[in-house]
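Colleagues,

For the teaching module next term, I've prepared a clean inverse folding example: a structure given as tokens, and then the sequence designed for it. I'd like students to try predicting residues themselves before seeing the answer, so please don't circulate the second half yet.
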């Protein structure tokens, strides 16, 4: 059922309904085994395209996992070279976005700016307009590229700001209301903006057309919601065909389709789930202390989606898990520990940190740290085996690590979701 401004309170019925259906279908397992392989594939495709997928999480079934299970067999390395003072980046990089041959890197805490590099890692320029006057901002929270222009979102004072792809200011529009981060969807040519609704007349999502008209609201405020301190910067995610929304403490991920919000994934944690009522009764400081020490599973609002799979990060009593859900096979994979890099045998990522563009995700690691990993690999492998690996399977890893060996700037490691 599509989610509209009046139907959000019915969401709690989905999980009860789905659990009943799920148990009933389980009893029919013997009958399902009699179906032909082609029928199974057809039903899986129909479920992926039309149905609400139950993502069941059972930590007793967690296992080790390899990158090749979930990603295409090619890894890219991009060192963001710090060959000038302007090109030096700080530790807190809140958003990294690819657009054609450019990379836009948002730092909202240190410089409050957006650094621009090309795909070869060469510094191009910067959007640095901190100030109180026209064409300036005191704060910003996200960026989007719309019609070959960079749009700043979540700006304070409240406004939208446009820059060209090289970082030159173009224009701005003052807004009446304050909005947080958001995205622009090329699927329907609309802006989707998130704000933290805190009263009965407010909504979490507002969407407007390209001319900033035709307002549609989604997800009305509801008093039972557990407030999150997350910015919402990662709540909107794009695959190559759809726009999605998932929010911290909410166990459902939605897809936008024909100006409707449709539930697509719902998480079932069983006995491993965190009791959100326990968190609601705590002051923010005590809540954060519990979350950082002994919290059980809940949706953290950090996820990426392709047409074939869903990825998210989970934690249970301080232990971190990578979850991959196969949309075609309706199968959940809970991976404990680092993802083993069997593609080029280089860096083993603990989690996937960034969504660079649709289908492209990855991590960042300081150049000097990547080089240190190369040195350690040499010690473990021995000189002969190391040289053979560095010339063949690990060529791109070794080449990038050597080039960035003295750099504090990050190397972006880019994976392609299957």
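(Answer key — instructors only)
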């Amino acid at each position: 059922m599509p989610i509209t401004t009046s139907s959000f309170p019915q969401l709690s019925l989905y999980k009860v309904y789905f659990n009943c259906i799920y148990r009933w279908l389980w009893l029919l397992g013997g009958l399902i085994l009699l179906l032909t392989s082609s029928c199974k594939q057809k039903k899986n495709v129909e479920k992926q395209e039309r149905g609400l997928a139950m993502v069941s999480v059972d930590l007793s079934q967690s296992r080790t996992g390899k990158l090749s299970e979930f990603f295409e067999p090619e890894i890219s390395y991009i060192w963001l070279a710090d060959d000038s003072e302007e090109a030096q980046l700080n530790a807190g990089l809140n958003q990294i976005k690819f657009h054609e041959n450019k990379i836009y890197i948002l730092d909202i805490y240190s410089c409050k700016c957006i650094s621009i590099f090309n795909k070869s890692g060469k510094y191009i320029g910067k959007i640095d307009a901190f100030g109180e006057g026209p064409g300036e901002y005191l704060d910003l929270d996200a960026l989007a590229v719309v019609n070959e222009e960079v749009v700043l979102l979540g700006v304070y004072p409240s406004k939208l700001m446009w820059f060209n792809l090289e970082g030159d200011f173009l224009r701005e529009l003052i807004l009446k209301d304050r909005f947080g981060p958001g995205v622009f969807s090329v699927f329907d040519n609309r802006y989707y903006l998130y704000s933290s609704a805190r009263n009965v007349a407010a909504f979490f999502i507002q969407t407007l057309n390209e001319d900033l008209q035709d307002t549609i609201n989604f997800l009305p405020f509801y008093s039972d919601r557990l407030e999150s301190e997350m910015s919402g910067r990662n709540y909107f995610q794009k695959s190559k065909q759809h726009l999605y929304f998932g929010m911290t403490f909410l166990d459902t991920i939605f897809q936008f389709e024909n100006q409707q919000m449709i539930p697509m994934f719902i998480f079932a944690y069983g006995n491993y789930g965190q009791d959100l009522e326990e968190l609601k009764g705590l002051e923010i400081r005590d809540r954060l202390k519990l979350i950082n020490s002994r919290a059980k599973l809940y949706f953290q609002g950090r996820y990426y989606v392709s047409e074939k799979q869903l990825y998210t990060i989970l934690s249970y009593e301080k232990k971190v898990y990578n979850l991959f859900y196969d949309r075609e096979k309706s199968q959940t994979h809970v991976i404990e520990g680092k993802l083993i890099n069997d593609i080029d045998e280089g860096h083993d990522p603990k989690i996937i940190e960034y969504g660079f563009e649709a289908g492209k995700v990855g991590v960042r690691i300081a150049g000097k740290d990547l080089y240190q990993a190369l040195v350690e690999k040499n010690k473990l492998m021995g000189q002969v085996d190391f040289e053979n690996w560095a010339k063949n399977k690990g060529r791109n890893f070794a080449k990038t690590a050597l080039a960035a060996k003295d750099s504090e700037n990050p190397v972006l490691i880019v994976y392609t979701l299957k």
